[in-house]
Amino acid sequence: MSSTPPSPSLAQGPAAPKSAPPIHILPNNISKTYALIHPVLLLALLALRFNALVADPVAELLSKLPFLALLQVAFVMTCLPPAGSAKDDDKSTSANSSSSSSNAGSTSGVILKPGKIGLRRKNTPKSESACLSAKLIVRLLIKYPPPSSSIPTHPYMSINKTPVTQKAHPTNSQNQKKKNTNKKKKQPAILSLTLTTLLATPVLTILLILFGAPLTTHHPETLLCGAHMAVLTSTALIYVHGVDGSVWKEVWGARRPADAVWGAALGTCVGAWFGAVPIPLDWDRPWQAFPITILVGAYIGYSVGFGLGRTVLFGKRLKIEEEGDVVEAKKVD
Amino acid sequence: MKVARSKWTILIANILVPISILVFSSGFFPYKTLLTGFATHEHTIGGQIPPGVFDKVLLLQADFHASDFVYSQHSGFLFTQRLGGGFLIRSGAALPFTAYASAPTVTMPRLKAITTGSVPSFLDVILNIAEADTSSTLMHQDTWLAQLKAKGGKLVMYGDDTWLKLFPGMFHRADGTTSFFVSDFTEVDNNVTRHIPNELLQDDWSAFIMHYLGLDHIGHKAGPNSPYMITKQHEMDSVVSMVYTALEQEKHLKTTLFVLCGDHGMNEAGNHGGSSVGETSPALLFISPKFQRLETRNDSPTEEFSDLQYYHTVEQTDITPTLAGLLGLPIPLNSLGVFIPELLAMWDHGAKSIPLTSSSGPHRIHMLLENAKQLLGAVKGSFPSYSFEFDLMPVICSSQSLIDIERVQCAWFRVLETLNGSGANHDSEASSEIESALLLFLRNAQKLMSSAASDYDLIRLYVGLSISGFAISLTFFPAKRLLVNFAPAGMFLGFSILSYSTMMFASSYVEEEQQFWYWISMGWVVYLHVKYAGHFHGNSIQKSGPANGHWPFEPSLPWFGAAALAVSYRVLRRWNQTGQKFAAQPDITGSFFPSHQHTLWALLSLAASDSPELLGNSFLQPVAMLTDGMHLLYHARMVLCGISLLMIYSLYAGKARETTHKGRGKWPPSTIFHETLTLFLLMQSKVTNIPAFLVFRVQITILASMRLSTVEQTITSLLMQYVTFYAFGGSNAISSVDISNAYNGIGTYSVFIVGALTFISNWAAPIWWVSASRLLRSSQNREEKEAHVTILTLHMATILMSVMAACTTLRTHLFIWTVFSPKYLYTIAWAMINHIVVNVLGEIDWRLFMKR
C-alpha cells in the first residue's frame, strides 16, 4: 500500500545502497509543538466537516483539498527538515554550482544534490544512477509544467504562505544555519506538491481501484480520495526525501524505518484499508457511501501512524522474514 | 514420535469435524413429527358436530396483500373499504384481520401454512430447492382442500402454479401461471381474471382459488411505493367487487365464503423471505353478505400503524381450522391453528335455522372443542412423554414457573374441569367459561407447537459446538508451533481467522462475505509484495530452495508480481457481483460479456487452447457440445469418459515413473492430471466463468515465481479457494446455488451424481486452486504436507465453530432462517466436501497405495 512514483524502476542500481535514516522532527519548540497539534488539527477538520462530507463528498473533498495541502505544507515547512538540509554537510555549496540553466532548474538541483550526496550517503558511495534519474524527473517536470487547472494553485499558495512560516525562522536559526533556509524550504515544498499532484495522486488512485474502489463509476470520488491520501502520504515524504531513489525503493517495499513521516504515510494506507470495513453493513447510513469511510480511515490512520512512528516504533522496520522452514521448526521441538 | 502423534491428532480432528456437524445439525434442524392420515369427525363429547355455515369457498390470494395495502387510507382497495353507500368492512360484510405469516415468507411454505395449518420448517425450504423431489407436495398431507375433495367437492384453481406443484392432480379445472417473468405485471393477472366470470356462473365447484401474481411482481421489480402498485390495487379491488356482487346476486353462491388473503407481505425494498414486520403482516378478510347479520362494525380506512398490525392479529395457520369449521369439515390433523373467535358468532345466528339446539352455545363450544382435541392430538404426537389424562392431574399447575408444555397441560386440565363442572346443561355463563378455558388451551398449545417447529435441541447444539471446539484445540497446538516459526504469516492467518469468526455474528457480513475475502486477500497481496519486493534488494535471492516442482511456467516476476496479482484480483472481484447489497451492480459476466460476445468467445478459445498437450481433447469438448442435439448426452458422457481415462492414466503414469527413472519428459503426470482436471472443471463451469481460469493461470504463474514458504503456500491456497468461490458467483444465499451444470451427461435423476456435479460446478474454482496449489507444493516433503493439512484443519474447524456459535447464540435472531442457516449449510459443504474430500483426501499420495 505504498505510494510509489516510478522512480525506483528507473533507478535500479545494482548495489543495495544503505538507506536514509529515520527523520526527526526539527528540534525546536515550535516544531515540536506543532507536530503534536498537526494530526489533531487534521482530525478536528475532518470531524468538523464530516456532515458536509457526507452530504456532498465530491464538493467537500474538492474544496477542502487546497486547505489540506496548505496545512500539510505548513506542517512540513515548520516541522521537518527539507530534502538536502544537511547539518553536517558542506557539499551543499558545491551543489549550488550546478545551477546553470533556468531558474527553476537550478533550484531543483539545489534540492536534490545535497540530499543525494551529503545527508543520505554519509558513509557510502553515492548512487549516481539514482541521482541522475532523480534530476531527470525534476527537469522533466519543470519543462512540462502541470497541466491540471485546479491543483497547480497549491504551489503558489504555498509561496504566498511562506511569510507566515518565515516568522518561525528566528527560532529555527538558533539551531540551524540562517542563510537560505527560507529558500531551502520553499523549493522542496513546491517540489513535493508538484510530485504529489502528478505522481502520487494517480498512483494512489490506481491503488484505490486495485483495492476495490469502483472502476466504472464514482470517478471524481476515487480521484479526490486518492488526492487526499496523496497529500497526506506523499507531501512530507517528498519534502523530506526529495526523489532519492533508495528511499523510494524502500517505500515501494514498505520497509522504511519508522518515523513520523513514514509512519503517517503507512498509517494512512492501512487506515484506508480498514476504512472499508463498515461499507458492507446493512445499516443504510449515508456515511457508508464509498469514499467517506475510506477517507476517515485514512485520516485516523495518518494520525495514529504519525504518533506511533514518532514514538514507540521509531526507527523500526516492517520486516517479513520467517525464522525457519518447517523442517527446521520440527527439529527445534 | 512427536511427528507421529501430531499426525494422529490431525486425523482425529478431521474425523471430529463431520461428527460435530452431524450432532449440531440434528439439534439445529429438528425433525418435525407429522401425523399421517386424514382427519375425520369424531363423535364424543357433546356428540355433535357444528354444522357448516358455508359450503363453498372462494379464495382470492394475492402475493403482497400487506395489510396496509388493504386497510390504510392510501390503499387502492376502495371497494373493500367502501361498498355502495356503505363500506364492505364498515358494513360488516367483511371481517378484517392481520394474519401473521412466520418466516420463511416465500410462497410455497406460506401456502403450506394456509392449507395444512402447520408451521413450515426450514427443511421445507431446503426440500423445495430440489424441484424433482416429490416429497414436498401436499398430496398425502391433510389439508382442507383434501377434506373438501374427500367430501366430494370439486376444486378449481387459477393463478400461481405453485398450487399445481403442491397439489398435483387435485384440481378439477386449473390454469397455472408461472411467475418466471417478474417484469410481467399484467398478463399474469389477466390470465386469472378472464376465468372469473365463467367460473362464477358454474355451480359445480366447492373451492375456487385465485392466486394473483401481479402485486408480487411489481413489488420485486419496482418496490411497494411504485406508481404501478396503486393501479394494481384498483384492479384487485374491482375483482373483489365483481366477486362480491356475484355473491349477492347469484343464487348458487348464497352459501359461499369469500376469503381474501395474502400469503406474505413485503419489505421496504419490495422483497420478501425474511421476517420483518412488512413481510409477516399480510391481510386476511372473510367476506360474505351473511356477515352483515353479525353486526360487527369496524372502521375503515383506518389510521396507518407503523407496526402494520391492523384490526385483530391472528396467525396465518388459523385460516385452516376456521375454514374447516365454517365449511363443516374436520380440522386437518397437523393444523396448529385456532378457530378465529370472531367467526364463532356465525353459529349464534346460524343456529336459528337449525332447530336441533335450544341455544347457540353448544355449537360454539363444540367447534372449539373439536379444535382443541385436534390440537391436543398434535401436541401428543410431538410430546409423547406427557400425559393428558385427567386423573393424573399434577399439582404443578399451582406453581408459578411453568415450562410451555406444562402450561398446555394445565390449560387442558382446566378445560376438562370446567366441562365436567358444567355437565350437560350449558347456560350462558358456564359456556362462556368453557369457551375462555378452551381458547386459553388452544392459544397455549398453538404457541407451544409453533415454537416446536423452530425449537432447537440446545444440548445437541452445545455438544456439536464443543466437539468442534475440541477439534480446534487438537489442531491448535501443532498449528501454533508451525505458525510461531513463520511469525508474520502466522499473525496474518490468525488475524484473518479471528476477524472472520467475529464477522459470522453479523448478518450483513455473512451476506457480503465475499467482501471480506477480497479485502483480506488484498492484504495478503501486500504482504507478499512487502516480502518479495524486499527480497529483491535485500539480496536474499539465494533462497531458491528445491527446484520448484513441476510447474511448467516459471518466469521471474519478482518486482511487479504482487502488483500483477493485485490487478488480477481486481478483475476477479468484478467477475460476478454477489451477495445482497451490491448484487445488482454491473459485473463482467452480467454486463460486459453480454455486450461483448466476441471477447467472450476469444477468451474461451484462449482458455481452451491453454492446455496445449490436450488440445485434441479440449477441441472435442465444444464440438461434442455443438454437434447434434440428439446425442448431446452421449457426447457429454464421452468427454467425461475421456477425461476420467486421462486422470487414471496420469495416476498410473506417475506410479510407473516413480519406479523406473526420474526426469525426462516435459509434462510430468501430475501436471497432466491437473490439466485434465482443469478441462473437467471448465466443462462444469458456467460459460461466462471459463475465461476466469485464464486469470487463475496468470496468478499461479506469479505465485510460482515467488517461491513462497510452506505456510505462505497454505494461506495462499486457502485465500484463493474462498476468493474464487465468490468470484464465480457463489454466495451464502441458497438462491445462488447453480444447478445449470448439475445434469451434464446424466440421463436420469440420481441424488448422488447430481449432488456431486452440483458441488463441482459450484466449487469449480476452489477445486482448481486446491489442485494447482498442490502442484505448486509438489516439492514438499511429508512434514510440510502435514503442516499444510494442519493449518487447513485449524482454519476449517475454527470457521465451523464460529458459524455454529453464531447460529446458537443468534437462534432467535430475525434472520436466523434467511441468513445464518444458509450460511451454516454452506459451511457444511465447505467443511465436509471442500475441506475433507478435496483438500485433505487430495493431499494423500494415492500413488503410495497403488504401489502396495
From TrEMBL, chain A:
<feature type="transmembrane region" description="Helical">
    <location>
        <begin position="189"/>
        <end position="215"/>
    </location>
</feature>
<comment type="pathway">
    <text>Glycolipid biosynthesis; glycosylphosphatidylinositol-anchor biosynthesis.</text>
</comment>
<keyword id="KW-0472">Membrane</keyword>
<feature type="region of interest" description="Disordered">
    <location>
        <begin position="84"/>
        <end position="109"/>
    </location>
</feature>
<feature type="transmembrane region" description="Helical">
    <location>
        <begin position="34"/>
        <end position="53"/>
    </location>
</feature>
<keyword id="KW-1133">Transmembrane helix</keyword>
<keyword id="KW-0812">Transmembrane</keyword>
<feature type="compositionally biased region" description="Basic residues">
    <location>
        <begin position="176"/>
        <end position="186"/>
    </location>
</feature>
<feature type="transmembrane region" description="Helical">
    <location>
        <begin position="287"/>
        <end position="309"/>
    </location>
</feature>
<protein>
    <submittedName>
        <fullName>DNA, SC111</fullName>
    </submittedName>
</protein>
<dbReference type="InterPro" id="IPR009580">
    <property type="entry name" value="GPI_biosynthesis_protein_Pig-F"/>
</dbReference>
<keyword id="KW-0337">GPI-anchor biosynthesis</keyword>
<keyword id="KW-0256">Endoplasmic reticulum</keyword>
<dbReference type="GO" id="GO:0005789">
    <property type="term" value="C:endoplasmic reticulum membrane"/>
</dbReference>
<feature type="compositionally biased region" description="Polar residues">
    <location>
        <begin position="164"/>
        <end position="173"/>
    </location>
</feature>
<dbReference type="Pfam" id="PF06699">
    <property type="entry name" value="PIG-F"/>
</dbReference>
<feature type="transmembrane region" description="Helical">
    <location>
        <begin position="227"/>
        <end position="248"/>
    </location>
</feature>
<feature type="region of interest" description="Disordered">
    <location>
        <begin position="164"/>
        <end position="186"/>
    </location>
</feature>
<feature type="transmembrane region" description="Helical">
    <location>
        <begin position="260"/>
        <end position="281"/>
    </location>
</feature>
<feature type="compositionally biased region" description="Low complexity">
    <location>
        <begin position="93"/>
        <end position="109"/>
    </location>
</feature>
<dbReference type="GO" id="GO:0006506">
    <property type="term" value="P:GPI anchor biosynthetic process"/>
</dbReference>
